[in-house]
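Wed. Picked up where I left off yesterday with Manganese transport system membrane protein MntB. The coffee machine is broken again, so keeping this brief.
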Amino acid sequence: MNIINLILTDYTLQIVSLGSALLGIISGVLGSFAVIRKESLLGDAVSHSALPGIALAFLLTGTKNTEVLLLGALLSGLLSTFLINGISKYSRIKFDSALALILSVFFGGGLVLLTYIQKVPNANQAGLEKFIFGQASTVLLRDVKIIAILGTILLLLVLAFWKEFKIVSFDIDFAESLGFDTKKITFLLFAMIVTSIIIGLQTVGVILMSAMLTAPAVAARQWTDKLHIMVILSALFGAISGIGGTIVSSVVSKLPTGPMIVIIISTIVIISLALAPNRGLVWRYLRNVKNQRSIGEDQVLANLYHLYVNHDNEGHCHDLITINPDANLQQKGKENIQKQLEDLKKKGFTRSNSLDKWCITDSGIEYVENYFKEGEE
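Structure written out below (tokens, as returned):
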């Protein structure tokens, strides 16, 4: 009840939560395309590359106006994206190597500029370091309006170019064969991804922004094979992590909001990796166990069928070692065969006699013969 009362009465919490939720939605939607294109680390490079743009914008203007600093970050991010793609396209350097190179160079340059700014006799430079780790608590209504306006534009562009973004993300060669200008579409998509990264720097910072771009999409990918559902789930996960991280950091004192947001979305990713119905590790393990058990039962039933066919007395039952000689190697093998025979008995495929020997039933014979017939077809 205290948490609900805090949400309803704390104006700062409401503003920060709204800004974080909007950031989560925008990052989730555009991050889905980055994940599908297998270019998730582009967000890491762009977010780090924004730092020198922020520093240069301050040096040139002498102001900490959010719009000016984010504009500098945007230009720096676009430049880094252009360089990464240019290096990978026109040289022998791979995309990941170009990405690591530009990331380290830009981020190192940004740190140098921030260090220089701190030595400049200007009291206005305090607080620029918040863009490194983020400081969501400083988000104002004006900042939320900027996020909302830019986010609305980005989401409308996604809707307008949904078909183009989808086909370019999945099969760029097929898109070219259909006559799409893939270079312009790719550039627009990259520019939108860069913009979504830039507007989130004040909340989670350059270090953690890549997680906001990729984690919601990675979690959503585990639950569906359809892009539109993935985008919706990714936006939902991003919003939940933004609101949840803000609330937790407000309830627990001295807990930073940005890292808490990332922790929550990381928890969602872990849950999705473990429990998603089709791709979840838990369900995959259970399916593997079930499949192995089914294969083992089919093998035992096939052995009983061959014994039935080759024995003079068709109703003769056999002990475990005869059914599967490997079961004689260890006690666990005998227990497995015994369990498989019991399961087959429940299905009506096997029966046992008073001496605990086993033979195949008419239903089992019919099942095996139908199985072999299907295999031949």
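Quick read: Strands lie at 350-352, 358-360.
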